[in-house]
Amino acid sequence: MDILAASFRLARIAEKTLDGLVSGAVTRTVPAGVDLVAIRHATSHRTIEPLRDDKHGTGVLNGNSIKYVTSEMFIGYENVTHLALDGNPIESIEPGAFEKLSQLYELLLSFNDLESIKRGVFNGLSLLHTLNIEKNLISVIEEGAFDGMSSLFHLDLSGNRIGSIKQGMFSGMPSLFTLGLSHNSIKVITSGVFNWLPSLHVLSLDGNRIETIEDGAFGGLSTLTVLDLVGNRIKLISENALCGMPSLQVLCLQGNHIEIISPGAFEAMRSLIRLDLAGNRITSIGENTLSGMPSLEFLDLQDNRIEAIAPGAFKAMPLLTRLVLTDNPICLTTKPDEPLRAWGLPARAKVEC
């Protein structure tokens, strides 16, 4: 369960691991006695001297004063595979700027001043595996901006100013495995906006302002394993809001404003192993409130306002091993042997109350 507890951070862990590998690769390409930091700070927006060996090239341009990225900057470096442009004040990228970098595997654009992503900016990057654009000022992503990125595996857009997810925003990435949208300003997840991501396994939407999840919002995410919705403003989980994710194993909803869970809201989650609803405003658990999760092993309901749990409320969870109810009013009135007998919990379940 410790692995599952941490799995919703898979995208972040994967990115940090890749960063470490890339940093190691960069260091190994530097000749003995050469100061890598000095190279980084000596590089101007007009002159690029990527560090590379016979196997791959690495362009290190982070922490400089680059404001505009154009295709002319990369003439002569068509074989570069890793390009670090993070930590600059980049305001705009010319459409087609990376078009000649057809071998590019990783592109780092975090901690810049980009306000939008225009269609055509990433043309020619069909082999790109990792794209990190976190911590910019992005509020607009044009439809089709990621078209043609058939190999993209990790995309991080966390820490921007994205206010809504529009239809077609994420088209063109059939191989995408992790999508980071944490800490933006998203208020509504509309129906079908993720239909273009057939391979997505990890979706991070924590730290937004989400109040509404429309029916079918996650439809088409048949491979999704981890969904992180922590720290939003969700009040209602409607019956069909979470449908369309048959492979989901970890669902994190803690720290929202959830008061109502419609009966059958989790009915289609046959693969769910961990459900975290801690820190919400739930007052009762009905007989069908949490039905439909036969694989569930861990259920966290701590720090809610639960006063009543209906008889048989957990009878459809034969694999449940841990139920956390601490910091709920019901813990003041429940007898030690009552949960297993009345709530339909399996004999091996551990109740924390």
UniProtKB/TrEMBL annotation:
This protein's UniProt keywords: Glycoprotein, Leucine-rich repeat, Mitochondrion, Repeat, Signal
GO cellular component: plasma membrane
One Pfam match: LRR_8
SUPFAM superfamilies linked to this entry: L domain-like
Sequence intervals crossing the membrane: none
SMART domains associated with the record: LRR_TYP (SM00369)
Alphabetical list of InterPro entries matching this protein: Leu-rich_rpt, Leu-rich_rpt_4, Leu-rich_rpt_typical-subtyp, LRR_dom_sf, LRR_TM_domain-containing
Name by which UniProt lists this protein: Uncharacterized protein
